[in-house]
Structure formats: C-alpha cells, structure tokens
UniProtKB/TrEMBL annotation:
Keywords (A to Z) from UniProt: Metal-binding, Zinc
Protein name, as recorded: CENP-V/GFA domain-containing protein
PANTHER family: CENP-V_GFA DOMAIN-CONTAINING PROTEIN, CENTROMERE PROTEIN V
CENP-V/GFA domain: residues covered: 14-123
GO molecular function: carbon-sulfur lyase activity; metal ion binding
Similarity field: Belongs to the Gfa family.
Species name: Rivibacter subsaxonicus
InterPro entries in UniProt: CENP-V-like (IPR052355), CENP-V/GFA (IPR006913), Mss4-like_sf (IPR011057)
Length: 136
C-alpha cells in the first residue's frame, strides 16, 4: 500500500490531470496506489507509463469529458482514453479485468512516478485473456 511517494501524500481522493489540464479526473484511492506496474503489450510499450488500477466507480471525470477521446484496437475490449488536445493517456478500462480502470500514475497531481521503487512489468504480450487453459 503506497500512500506517499517522495514525501508527497497520495490522497484518498486524488486529482489526476492530462498535460494541458483540459481533462481532470478524481480518483478514489482509499488504499493509495495499489500494485503499480508497467506492461509490455503493444500499446503500453509505446506509452511507457506506470499504471495502477481502481474499480470503475473509483474514477469520475471532473473537467473536460468532451476532450477525452476513446481508442480501441484488436479485440476492442479495452477502452483507452486520452486527451484529444495534448495526447496524454489518462486511463483505460482493462481487458483482463473489465470491472477496473487503470490510470496513468504519472498524471496524478504532484506525484513523480520515477520515485516508485521496483515497479514490476506485467506480461501483456501473452495476455491473460489469450492464455490457453490446460485441459481439465
Ligand atoms: Zn490535455
């Protein structure tokens, strides 16, 4: 449970913004930043962002809903949102856990994601939804 990064508190309700400030979200983070990670899937490897997840109800759009653009590809299950003005990815609805959003930790106001230690890399190349289950 990460409730402070480099001496900056992660608030129970923390604001997240894109670079230009058009898009502002409020996140419910009662347990701080939970399991921050990187992912090596085709889109995350290009973004390079550290992400963490919240339940869908844990994100509300405070400002700039009209600037949020949806990007989908391949199975079209995951919903990737970015600011149409500055291009920054703010959050996405997950394919592996559609009842969760992942958010861009680098967009949390005041938080420097490079101060997080030992951020693991999630195996997004062999996506959990694509793994073959052993025959029962
Ligand atoms: Zn923006």
């Amino acid at each position: 449970m990460i409730t402070s990064v480099g001496g900056v508190a992660v608030l129970p309700r923390h604001r997240l913004s894109c670079h230009c400030g058009a898009v502002v979200l409020e996140l419910a983070l009662p347990d701080g930043i939970v399991e921050p990670r990187r992912c090596d899937c085709s889109i995350c490897r290009r973004k390079g962002a550290i992400v963490a997840s919240v339940p869908l109800a844990g994100i509300s759009v405070v400002e700039g809903a009209e600037f949020l653009q949806l990007y989908q590809f391949n199975t079209k299950v995951a919903r990737h949102y970015f600011c149409s003005r500055c291009g920054i990815h703010t959050h996405h609805q997950r394919r592996s856990f559609p009842d969760q959003y992942s958010y861009n930790v680098g967009c949390l106001e005041g938080i420097n994601p490079f101060l997080l230690n030992d951020v693991p890399v999630y195996d997004g190349v062999e996506h959990p939804a694509d793994r073959k289950r052993p025959a029962a």
